[in-house]
Amino acid sequence: MASNAVFALLMTRDAGSAYRFRNLYVEPVYQDLPSQMAAVNAFLRQQLSDLPEDTRRIRECLLNELDFEHWLHMLATHVLPEVLRMGLPCARPTGYVFRSEASHFPLLDLLPVI
Q1: pLDDT of 93 higher than 90
Q2: DSSP readout, 48-79?
């Protein structure tokens, strides 16, 4: 499966990213390899497009028309190094700032303290 190949590539570089990919990526029900490659590409495009920086150049490398070996080569040489540099995959867009201070969430003041 295409996702297993991506997982294996990520494991050689960053186990954390590999396991985040495994947890976040939803395996498609179709079994043919081109459809699996297209689904992985769609997942990575979505991850990259959620970032505040311009990732168009990287997303253009996610081609659905390549044979499996060329597709894997493009991922390994052009896409995954940038994915890892940006800390992807992630469960939420990295452009958002989450603060834990109650002053940033006024409704938290209404909750009882336990």
Answers
A1: no
A2: HHTSSS--HHHHTT--SSS-HHHHHHHIIIII
